[in-house]
Automatic annotation (TrEMBL):
Protein name, entry field: Sigma-54-dependent Fis family transcriptional regulator
Keyword Nucleotide-binding: yes
Top-level taxonomic group: Bacteria
InterPro entries given in the database record: AAA+_ATPase (IPR003593), AAA_lid_NorR (IPR058031), GAF (IPR003018), GAF-like_dom_sf (IPR029016), Homeodomain-like_sf (IPR009057), HTH_Fis (IPR002197), P-loop_NTPase (IPR027417), Sigma_54_int (IPR002078)
Region (Disordered): 1-20
SUPFAM superfamilies in the record: GAF domain-like, Homeodomain-like, P-loop containing nucleoside triphosphate hydrolases
Domain Sigma-54 factor interaction: 313-540
Keyword terms of this UniProt record: ATP-binding, DNA-binding, Nucleotide-binding, Transcription, Transcription regulation
CDD domains (alphabetical): AAA
Organism listed in the record: Telluria antibiotica
Amino acid sequence: MIAISHRRSEQFGLTPDARPDFGPMSGTDLSYLVEQNRLLYSHAVPAMETLYQQIANTHNMVLLTDAQGVIVHSLGDADFLEKANRVALTPGVAWSEESKGTNAIGTAIAERAPTTVHADQHFLSSNHFLTCSAAPITDHRGNVVGVLDVSGDRRSFHKHTMALVRMSALMIENQMFAATFENAITLHFHTRPEFIGTLMEGIASFSPGGRFLAANRNGLFQLGLSFPALQAHTFSSLFGLPVSALYDHYRTAAPGLLDLCMHNGVRVRARAELRLTNGVHVLTGAFDDVPQASLPQPSAKTATRRLSGLRYLNTGDPQLEQVIEKVNRVLGRDVPIMIMGETGTGKELLAQAIHNDSPRAQGPFVAVNCASIPETLIESELFGYEDGAFTGARKKGAIGKILQANGGTLFLDEIGDMPYALQARLLRVLQERMVTPLGSGKSIAVNVEVICATNHNLRRRIAEGLFREDLYYRLNGLVVKLPPLRERTDLEIVVRKILSAETETGGTHTISDEVLRLFKRHKWPGNFRQLTNLLRTAAIMAGDDEEICLRHMPDDFLDDIAETSEAAPASAPAAQQMVAAGANLEEMELAAILKALEANGGNVSATARALGVSRNTIYRKLPHLKTSP
Ligand SMILES: Nc1ncnc2c1ncn2[C@@H]1O[C@H](COP(=O)(O)OP(=O)(O)OP(=O)(O)O)[C@@H](O)[C@H]1O
């Protein structure tokens, strides 16, 4: 490196015995230089003072330069300053390679790397009495914004000086980083929790919606991606969690460090800071007390689960509020909970939240969907089987879901679809708290809380002889009903929540009033599942457009809306019904166009003729038609 630098020095036209112009800047120019480097200067000066305290009385000085190697500030021992003045190691003088040849400051800038230049390694012979160690200081984009240097008499050389300089430079970078983003979430992370808050920590900032903004040197290293590559990422794509999980976590009563799984599979612990215009909050995670070695390594999905409790489901709908209130009263009291609700209303999410808020939260949450497992497999899936219980391929033996849930919660979704014969076995497990795997003579004690969910009317199934009455009474300690989406009064909040938590863009999109009005009128047969999928697609369609509008809606959704209007009873004219439902003129206009489009098989010209408007009017109202194939 030194030899290459010497060649560069020669190319700059310098000779070793040259005595370049050392004239420093005027006081005004120097003040201007400091002003131009205000952020660097204000964070570097305290770090320089700390560094100087460690090397005081060793015939050394500490120097700060700007990105071009011009000295902005210096601190030093009086006896050495005199010598330093002779070679112009003073504020306002440039120490780039171009003006001084090979030297630690100029070469560190040229190489973008920490550099020590000792004695006659300096290109100019007038500098041979020096030993200098310099480290570049970079900003959040990785641009060199300055250099920190310790220079001294060559006899004072100490091999630890370079390490001190590097650590101080890192400290300055981290402090500058922390001060750069005002409206952001800043994550401090490391694979080892004891390194959080030290110079070794990775720091990454995200917009409040979760878009990646920047990472410090160690952050880039830990994430294993370059700054340009990271710009395409979000909190969710890097850590597998929606950014809303951070907010949720922050609201917990005694948050500890977060446990996150990075995109490359490496697990890190983290502390988050939410720096918004109304103040700084420290966000930390709640899992400090969990003995990590005893836990299965959590996937990003389980980490998300851990972060959702009952209060985060409460987004203002009165029906749901009542459900949550009732559930809260029986938490931890061994009262079986049965959740009723249409498909996609969030039954599993509620069960998970109940588990998370229960005294069993540290235990497993195991969900089994009785409708999706073939009848012949449910028994082994639930109860497990012993080696040799089967002939053929599956003869290794397996632990069933009931035992997997030991110490935690077993969520039996679609319990109404459980085969009748198995219902008696399940009842026995619940009463005796023992499981006997298939093919085994031995019973194993098990301690599980059971939460059930169903979309069926179980009483009717009992009357039809499809469901056991004794099991029904064993399971329905508290029955709660989740409202379908069409009845929820908090749709707007829910939409915002899903947009920030579930979409790839991490909540950078807003939703237009027009779309929201359509949402409020829609029947949502698939409930949250349908809404979540729709918003994911719409956010992708919207791309860089901030607002999700009608043109970003998938055609099948618009078709559904049109069909709903079509299916309205003919007795009351559609317009009257819509007025009664509180629709405005724009919505009625839209519904009329959609209906006419439907009636004309999607033909825009025929629709325009039928409505007595131009084709352009139709395209203006439904711009997505233009881009439809
Ligand atoms: N309150 C909510 N806010 C945001 N998303 C939700 C909410 N409730 C449910 N979801 C989402 O909707 C989808 C379906 O939820 P879930 O599986 O809990 O419903 P379910 O009632 O158990 O469905 P099914 O009866 O079909 O099993 C999931 O992706 C879930 O994350």
